[in-house]
Amino acid sequence: MSATAIAPVVRGTIRPWTAGGPAARTVTDRRAPAASASRSVARRSEPSPAPLRLTRRGRAVVWLLGIALAGGVGGAAASAQADGPVAATEVRRVEVAPGQTLWGIAEDVAAPGEDVRDVVLQLMALNDLPSAGLQAGQRIVVPVG
User: Fold this and answer.
1) Which domain, by its residues, includes 124?
2) At what angle do helices 102-109 and 116-127 cross, to 10 degrees?
3) Which pLDDT tens digit goes with each residue over 74-119?
4) Which one in 6, 15, 47, 87 has a CA-CA gap of 20 to 30 Å to 101?
């Protein structure tokens, strides 16, 4: 009776140890080279798909879709208009006195019937202010008139 021991697999090689000595056997791919050639022949014999054919209704849908897209793009381009030149706003510099607020300055500057809230927002935009808070001695510009 012979004793058999099997060593671990190293790089795809199985090395069984028998009583007669080591014998090496390599694990290989079992596919035959003719199998890949037969697959390529099978692909050639498959029928090619029929060309795309549109029915009368399909052609009508494609034309209407194209006209709708062209009309949508043309309509959007026709409605876009640029503003004309804007007249410059005449301003004057004001130094903020202690206890004075942006709301109080806006009330002084606002035209009769003009909403003071809109004037406060206009002053914040003119002076690039992050909030309506002011400090004494700060200089801001206010519209004249």
Assistant:
1) 91-143
2) 110
3) 655 556 677 788 888 888 999 999 999 999 999 988 888 889 999 9
4) 87
